[in-house]
Specification:
Layout (H helix, E strand, L loop, with lengths): L2 E13 L2 E3 L5 E5 H7 L6 E6 L5 E9 L6 E4 L11 E11 H6 L3 E3 L11
Length: about 120
Amino acid sequence: MIQVQMLKSKIHRVRVTEANLDYIGSITLDSELMKAAGILPGERVYIVDNNNGERFDTYTIEGPAGSGVVCLNGAAARRVQPGDIVIIMSYATMDIEEARTFRPQVIFPDTDTNKLVK
């Protein structure tokens, strides 16, 4: 059976609030954003920095709900600056027939506050 990797979840254009070099790694995200996008704690995510073109991957840690936190930790902190706009994506492997009808969860938070737009 043929399998493909498909976009599963996307948080489109949020602002980096912190970059914490003295941490073991990951990205801390507002848990409300994670839930809305269908991203789990510990899930591998890909990050694109719209300001400098960096592309890298890490894993997620839940931050306080409603906080708007988008904090890159550890080595990833060197790839961004607070204030940068990033896109956060996760992918899933599925069979090609499921992929034909699958629709990813994509959210578009307010870029200034990183809060869900109601």
